[in-house]
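Researcher: Quick one. two chains, 441 residues in total.
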Amino acid sequence: MALDFSIILRFQEALALGLWMTIKLTLICVVLGCSLGFLVGLARTSRRSLLRAISGVYVEFFRGTPVLIQLFWIFFCLPLILGVELSNLASGVIALTLYMGAITSETFRASLKSIGPEQLDACVALGLPRRVQVTNVILPQAVLRAVPTLLSNCVSLFKESALVSAVGMADLMFVGQNISNNTARPVEVLTVVAIIYFVIAFPLTRAVTLVERRVLAKLAI
Amino acid sequence: MGYSFDFQSIAFGPLLDGLAVTLQLTATANLIGVVLGFPLALLIMSRFAPIRLPAMLFVEFFRCTPAIVQIVWFFYCVPMLFNVFLGSMTMGILALGLNLMAFNAEAYRAAIQAVPREQLDAGIALGLNPLQRTLYIVLPTAVRASIPVLLTNGIGIFQQSALVAIVAVQDLMYQAKTLATETYRPIETFTIVALVYFAVSFPISQIVGFLERRRQLMMS
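Model:
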C-alpha cells in the first residue's frame, strides 16, 4: 500500500491542539500529584497507625488496579456519588493526580527511608520542632534524592495521560484516532502520533540517567 | 446522595469470562516477555552497533510511547502494513508481549551488568566459550537477580492488558464496560472489577516486596 505522510500536514493544527492538551494535563498532574505524593509518603512513614493504614490502602489500591479503570471510575461514578457534574478536564486531572500521587508517594517513601536516623537524632538534639524537621531537613534531601525516580514517574504519567482519550478527552491520542478514522489512514497518523510521544518521552528518560550520574554525584548525596 | 446500591444486577458470568481472557493475555504476554526479553537484552549489550542500535530503538520505542498507542497501532496498522489478518486475541498478545519484552530486556540488562566481573573471568579460566559463559554463568545469576523486576513488570502488563478493551478484545475491562452500560450500574460494576484487578495484583506485589526484603537481608 502507498503511504502518504503529507496528510499529516493538513491536520497539524488539530494535532498541535491535542498535544497541548496532553502537555497541559501532564503538567497540572505532575505538580498536584507530586505534592500529594510527598504528603502521602510522609503519612506512610507516620507514627500514627490510622494515617499509615489509610495512606497504605490508597497507594496499594491505585498501584494495584489499571489506570484505565480508575479513569472510568472517576468519569462515571464520581459524578453520581458527589451529585455534581465534573468537566472532562476536571475528571481527567483528578484521576491522573490520584494515580501520580500514588506512584510518587512510593518514590518519596524510598527516599525518606534513605535519610539516616542520625539526621533525625540530630534534629531532636537541636530541639527542632516537627515542622522545621520536615521542611528544612527532610524535604530538601528527600526531594533531591527522589529527582531521578520522580522524572521517570513523570514520563509514566505522560504516557498514561493517553488513556484519557478512552473517555473522550481531546488529547493527542484522541485527536490522532479521530483523524485516522476520518481519513482512513491509520498507518500514517498513528505512526506520527507515536513518534510525537516518543520524541517527548525519550529525552526525558535520558535526562533521568543524566541527573543520576551528574547532578547527584556533584551534590554527593 | 440519593444513590441506592444494587449489587444484585451484576452478572458475574461475563465478568469471569472476561477475567479468563485477561489472565490468558497476561500469561502469554509474560511467557513472551520473560523468554524473549533475555536474548533482547543480550542484543542491546552487543558490541556491534548494527545489532545494538536496532535493538535499542525497539526497546526505547516501546518504553517511551503510551501502551494504548502501541495497542491501537498494532490493531490498525499491522494488518494494513503487512497484509496479515490475525485474531484480536493474537494481536493483543503480540502487542502486550512485545511491550513486556522491551521492559524485561531493560531489567535483564541491569541484572546482567550486575554479574560480578570475577565470575566471567573464572569462566574464561575454566575454558568455557562465550555461549557457555552466557548460558551457565550469566543467565542463572541474572535471571535470579531480576525476578522482582520481572514480577513487577508482569503485574504491570496485567494492568495494561485492560487497554485491549478499547480495541474490543473481550477481556475483564470490556465486560465491565458492557455490563455497566447494560445495567446502568457503573459504580457497582467498576468497583467490583477494580477489586478483581486488585485482588490479583496485590498478592503478587506483596511477594515482590518479600523477595526484595529477603534479598536485602542476604546482601547485608
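The helical segments of chain B are 12-44, 49-64, 67-82, 88-113, 117-125, 130-160, 172-183, 186-219.
Researcher: Thanks, that's what I needed.
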